[in-house]
Amino acid sequence: MGKTIRFGVSLDSDLLDKFDLLCEEQSYQTRSEAIRDLIRNTLVKKEWEDTDREIAGTLTMVYDHHQSQLAQRLTELQHEAHEVIMSSLHVHLDHDNCLEVLVLKGQGEVVRRLGQKLISTKGVKHGKLSLTTTGEDLV
């Protein structure tokens, strides 16, 4: 870990007031903590642009398990991509609907393609792929 460097930032007072309000709403103890998170978020988003880079993420899906062959198809797709699925959670939301969460880790393009394939499977009511970093290059 590198040494801490102090630097100055010039901001319009209205922008700073809005930033301070955001810091308070999100329970940041200092502006520095908030700025560090903003920088890290930008660096993580940049990682996602590199399709060869290893990334992590979660895929959340809601679907009706009564939909003909849907559960079987989703299971088949997951088995075809077992190398990027680290874990899964299946929850019965009610009599008809299931929530499934997959924890993914792998090459960026492979993770994105799997997410899109599962979300676009006929019968999936809603799906969302949330990407993050493996954390290797963050400080």
Helix and strand arrangement:
Blueprint: H1 13-25, H2 31-49, E1 54-64, H3 70-80, E2 85-92, E3 97-107, H4 108-119, E4 124-132
Antiparallel strand pairs: 1-3, 1-4, 2-3
Domain Transcription factor NikR nickel binding C-terminal: 56-132
Protein name: Putative nickel-responsive regulator
Domain Ribbon-helix-helix protein CopG: 6-45
What do these coordinates show?
- With 139 residues, the protein is an alpha+beta fold.
- It has two domains: 13-49; 54-132, ACT-like. Chain A, domain 2 (Alpha-Beta Plaits, 2-Layer Sandwich), CATH 3.30.70.
- Helix content is 40%, strand content 28%.
- The protein is built from four helices and four strands; from the N terminus they run H-H-E-H-E-E-H-E.
- It has helices spanning 13-25, 31-49, 70-80, 108-119; strands spanning 54-64, 85-92, 97-107, 124-132.
- The chain has a four-stranded antiparallel β-sheet, with helices on one face.
- A hairpin with a 4-residue loop joins strand 2 (85-92) and strand 3 (97-107).
- The longest helix is centred in the first third of the chain and has 19 residues, at 31-49.
- The mean pLDDT is 92.
- Belongs to the transcriptional regulatory CopG/NikR family.
- Its cofactor is Ni(2+).
- Ni(2+) binds at residues 79, 90, 92, 98.
- Residues 56-132 form the Transcription factor NikR nickel binding C-terminal domain.
- Residues 6-45 form the Ribbon-helix-helix protein CopG domain.
